[in-house]
Design brief:
The protein is built from six helices and two strands. By secondary structure, it is mainly alpha-helical.
């Protein structure tokens, strides 16, 4: 049994911290013209704080992943941990650009103006496709692979 095995990769959790930007409150402030552009100073500072905070969380989790986890695990267990991280890094290829396409299509649209039905159908399609791909990979691993025994 691998001690300290996390179901979700630590780097993925660090990337999820970027979602904090969606949770922050909207501040009403005076806009200032800078170079002919209207700039909201508080929003810029808030966005910078959120970006630095997300990068800090990602840095701390990377330190944990590269310095502390190898000390907790044995050589064999660490090898399996690295193999797990290797496989997790390829998960993004299986959505075939669906999330990037949604981001490009809906990126600048305010939330209240979005076509919620379209977003929901794209989400359902993505989840269904990912589930089918996961089941195919699991079935292929049981049919064509063998599980080595690990002596702890």
């Amino acid at each position: 049994m691998i001690k300290g095995l996390f179901v979700v990769s630590l780097t993925q959790i660090g990337k999820l911290s970027v979602l904090l930007a969606l949770l922050k409150p909207k501040w009403e402030t005076r806009r200032v013209l800078v170079g002919g552009l209207s700039v909201n100073g508080r929003a810029i500072i808030s966005n910078m704080f959120t970006a630095f905070f997300a990068q800090g969380v990602s840095l701390l989790l990377s330190i944990l992943q590269s310095l502390i986890i190898p000390k907790m695990l044995g050589v064999t267990q660490f090898g399996y941990w690295q193999l797990y991280l290797f496989y997790v890094s390829y998960v993004g290829f299986f959505h075939l650009g669906l999330s990037s396409g949604i981001y490009l299509k809906m990126g600048g649209v305010p939330r209240d103006e979005m076509d919620k039905g379209s977003v929901k159908s794209q989400f359902v399609f993505g989840v269904t496709y990912q589930t089918i791909m996961a089941l195919v990979i699991i079935a292929a691993s049981y049919l064509f692979g063998s599980v080595p025994s690990v002596n702890s």
